[in-house]
Amino acid sequence: MRAAAYPPARLAWGIWGLGAALYLIGFYQRVAPAVITGELTADFGLTAAALGNLSAFYFYSYVAMQVPTGIIADRWGPRRLLTAGSLVAGAGTLLFALAPNLWAANAGRLLIGGSVAVAFVGMLKIASHWFVPRQFALASGMALFTGIVGAVFAGVPLRLLVNAFDWRPVMVASAIVTLALAAAIWWLVRDDPTEKGYATHFAGHGNDEDARSVLEGLREVFRYRNTWLLFLIPGGVAGPLLAFAGLWGVPYLTTHYRLSTAEAAAVTSTLMVAWALGGPFFGHLSDRLGHRKPLYALGLVAIAVGWGVALFFAPPYPILVAVLLVVGFFSGCMIPGFAFAKESVPPQLAGTVSGVINMGVMMGPMVLQPAVGWMLDWLWSGGMENGARVYELSAYRTGFALMMAWTAIALVLILFTRDTHCRQMVNGER
Description:
The chain is built from 18 helices and 2 strands. It has 430 residues and is mostly helical. It has a single domain, classed as Growth Hormone, Chain: A (Up-down Bundle), CATH 1.20.1250.20. Helix 12 (235-256) runs antiparallel to helix 13 (261-289).
């Protein structure tokens, strides 16, 4: 009998692409508050700390869902997981759009974050089944690229739409698109190529559906030293980037570089685009060189230097943009970290460890967005403009110092990881 062929690349990428669409929406929702800070502040009467908290409600549930998402992904498979995530994300977006008060807005953000949290792990599960193993890091990088496209939509395009229609109708339209995606995922996505008559690429096929509890899965993945380190490190990359591009960069640039909101959004979008380009680059280069650790360490050094120059030396505007481009591009160094973590544990724990690492990624902005806002309020000198608080440069720099601290810690921790040399661990041995 003739052996089944592997799925064609077009089909594999198409199925992966539907999961990527939810990730795109998640990124869009993640950074959307950055360009509607004025509207949110006016509608709900927010201080900087309250605004940071409203934005961070997305991350509170996102982080909380990561480990359960990994376990559920191993049990349910990506089709059911991504469909449920899209449905809840659409409902949360609608609640946020129609919120009569801050409590309802916070609840909407909470629902959005917890539901789109399934996207990245779902995509990684699809990649581990539908793609050849050597493409896993590339798929991780392309996932980031797709997400950043969503972040770019939440920049200048969102600002222009809000100027034309107001923020609430735009968010209602976003909810409708998200609900339509849920139907498409259920109709077209399948968990494994065998469900369409093809051979699977998954090394542990038949073993990833173990009925493990959340605690059992956590105990297993945290038996490996790299899991601990790779959980703590990426917050020092994504945290500063999303604290700046996802919330505080626009008010900082409008206040201290005298840019318009649209111009400031263009700068933060450029930072995100550079991140999108860096992800596939570092993923592909890591696969090609056969190393994870050295590229990650190099990226962290460049990020630390870049943030220091951009935020503490107040460079002229053209130099600021150039430095932010470098920071964004080298932030792509965190993408091989997902393959790094997957290779550091047995294959049947792929979903669980992916959830753990993605939780570490989002711990950064979850902590830093409200922390920077709290620091701004603490150092506020009483300045007001158009009914909103204005913060001095020294206050921003003190808040941004928290970002730098996490990056410095990450740089130290990466030195203690054990490189996998791009080889998958099997049953505790490489």
